[in-house]
From TrEMBL:
Gene3D superfamilies: 2.70.40.10. Keywords: Hydrolase, Nucleotide metabolism. This is dUTP diphosphatase. It holds the Pfam family dUTPase. It is an enzyme of class 3 (hydrolase). Residues 12-150 form the dUTPase-like domain. Belongs to the dUTPase family. InterPro entries: dUTPase, dUTPase-like, dUTPase-like_sf, dUTPase_trimeric. It comes from Paracoccus angustae. GO terms for molecular function: dUTP diphosphatase activity. It comes from the Bacteria. It catalyses: dUTP + H2O = dUMP + diphosphate + H(+). The keyword Hydrolase applies.
Length: 151
């Protein structure tokens, strides 16, 4: 995978990388010029990760996820829950950040170079669809969902 560095500070902070041998995702940095206060319940804010990617392979994609410590300890989550980086997208990676804390709480301050999100790479399956009048295989779970198997 090719990586374009869009913010030179990435060289100082380190390329997005896996923090441990068992990490499933790379961390993404907040490439902002000054500390940014995000008010609770305010609209989500797009923050540059300072990079662009070229997958060169359409069989996988990137998912941008919140960092668990940021979400649990501070209330900083993603405004879109999960971000999808399609394999044919080569533009700047942006992180939709949102302060989920109750209105009236203190703002969350994001600092330049702070690790604010993570990206995991996943395989993409693209099935061909066949329109049918009835399914060739049936199961006992035809309809319902939303708790249909119990609590």
């Amino acid at each position: 995978m090719e990586v374009r560095i869009l913010d030179a500070r990435i060289h100082e902070w380190g390329l997005p990388d896996y923090q441990t041998a068992g990490s499933a995702a790379i961390d993404l940095f907040a490439c902002i010029d000054a500390p940014l206060d995000i008010a609770p319940q305010a609209p989500a804010v797009l923050i540059s990760a300072g990079i662009a990617l070229s997958f060169d392979d359409f069989s996988f994609a990137g998912l941008v996820l919140p960092r668990s410590g940021q979400g649990h300890k501070r209330g900083l989550v993603l405004g879109n829950s999960t971000g999808l980086i399609d394999p044919d997208y080569t533009g700047e990676i942006l992180v939709s950040t949102w302060n989920r804390n109750p209105a009236g709480s203190a703002p969350i301050t994001v600092r330049p170079g702070e690790r604010i999100a993570q990206m995991i790479f996943v395989p993409v399956l693209r099935p061909a669809f066949a329109v049918v009048d009835s399914f060739s295989r049936t199961t006992t779970r035809a309809a319902g969902g939303f708790g249909s198997t119990g609590a």
